[in-house]
Amino acid sequence: MKESYPELDPNSSMAYVMRGVANLDKGQYNEAISDFNQAISLDSNNSAAYANRGKAYWMQKQYNEAIRDLSQAISLDPNNSAAYYTNRGGSFMGIRQYDEAIRDLNQAISFDPNNSNAYAYRGESNRGLKQYDEAIRDLNQAISLDPNNSFAYASRGETNRELKQYDDAFRDLDQAISLNPNNFFAYACRGEANLDRRQYDDAIRDYNQANNLDPNNSVVYASRGSAYLDRMQYDEAIRDLNQAISLDPNNSNAYANRGEVYQRLKQYDKAIMDLNQAIGFDPNNSYAYTCRGNVYRMQKQYDEAIRDLNLSISINPNDSIAYSIRGDAYRMQKQYDEAIKDFNLAISLDPNNELAKQQLREIRG
To answer: Do the domains at 148-213 and 216-283 have one common CATH topology?
Structure first.
């Protein structure tokens, strides 16, 4: 039930700001934005109204609107803007403009060297740029300044996951969730870590929780679809991947995963269509090239398969599966030296790649 407030002065811009902040603190973002709109209509130079409306937009993931308002707040009050730069940096982070985010967060830290959130967002932005040493350093500092910063733990956990430091990743992600049981980001990242470790039940459980917290997140549907794919629950996988694409028609990974489902179901035309879409939306999606190469291999189009697998390996030289599939395409063309080389590379990258071991044994007789 909405809380009622004492009657306010209808001519006071700051009165609307104060009520807006109260609504913002309660998560009533639309009501907060309405109050800040009224405050701005009464005083177009009220920096606090712009800053807090920007924060409300940011909380609703309306990042461009947030950036617009926070920029106005900074222009009106450039000397009192540590929080403004922090939130605008977080908004740039939200739209993956990481260089702009880091520039703002540097400024926020120069205003307030004890700003835990600024370090946390800068760490996450560094992770987005794959600058992992800088990310870990910033996230350590964020946690040192505020041991209850759930976002910093989640970001450090995801950084460790990408570095394949899984024990550290799970420790951080568990702590993030312990500090904030509604931390969507932490559940989504822990789902990815469980998926990496092939703990599919745990991954799906985490994705379910993330989905409960944000039912309109395309990435979670795509990731849960990938978990169902690995469990060979193809109907469930297609359902989730369809939903991911419905929410974000440009989601390259969702198309790539659905393409692999169709490949496993031997619906090759549908698979190729989806994989073409995946590559069109992200020409650096190595997984999509691997999957399309595998479809071509299964259709005995070996030259096309090798072409795609070459592209996949050029993007991700550590993909054991891509070497295995390319090796088999070479094997079918009787190019045995190239096949043996690829199978050996596949095994060196993943000593548990049983397919490559079996194919190598077959060649050697």
So the answer is: yes
Q: What is the mean pLDDT of each run of 10 residues along the chain (365 residues)?
A: 56 90 92 94 93 92 94 89 92 95 96 96 97 98 98 98 97 98 97 95 97 95 96 97 97 97 97 98 97 97 97 96 96 94 94 88 82
pLDDT at 340: 94
User: What's the rounded Cα separation, in Å, for the pair 121 and 243?
Assistant: 29
Count of residues in the chain? 365
Alpha-carbon separation of residue 149 from 90, 175, 176 (angstroms): 15, 10, 8
Sequence letter at residue 293: G
Query: Are 82 and 105 a contacting pair, CB within 8 Å?
Result: no
Q: List Cα–Cα distances, 52 to 95, 100, 249, 302, in angstroms.
A: 19, 20, 32, 58
pLDDT at res. 157: 98
CA dihedral 219, 223, 224, 227 (to 10 degrees): 180
**Cα–Cα distance measured from residue 124 to residue 102, given in angstroms and rounded to the nearest whole number:** 10
* Radius of gyration of the CA atoms of the chain, in A: 25
Provide the 3-class DSSP secondary structure of residue 26: coil
Given 3.30.450.90, 1.25.40.10, 3.10.450.50, 1.20.1060.10, which CATH number is that of 290-365?
Answer: 1.25.40.10
Task: Using alpha carbons only, give the angle 294, 295, 299 rounded to the nearest 5 degrees.
Answer: 115
What pLDDT score was predicted for residue 344?
A: 94
What are residue 318's phi and psi, to 5 degrees?
Answer: -105, 20
CA 68 to CA 88: how far, in whole Å?
9
Give the pair of three-digit tokens for residue 178.
Answer: 């312990």
Contact (Cβ atoms closer than 8 angstroms) between residue 217 and residue 186: no
Report whether 264 contacts 234 (CB < 8 A).
yes
pLDDT at 16: 92
Classified by CATH at the fold level, domain 148-213 comes out as 1.25.40
CA-based nearest residue to 58, from 104, 99, 18? 104
What pLDDT is stored for residue 123 in this prediction? 98
Q: Can you tell me the distance from the alpha carbon of 37 to that of 163, in angstroms, rounded to the nearest whole number? A: 44
Interaxial angle between packed helices 252-264 and 218-230, expressed in degrees from 0 to 180 and rounded to the nearest 10: 20
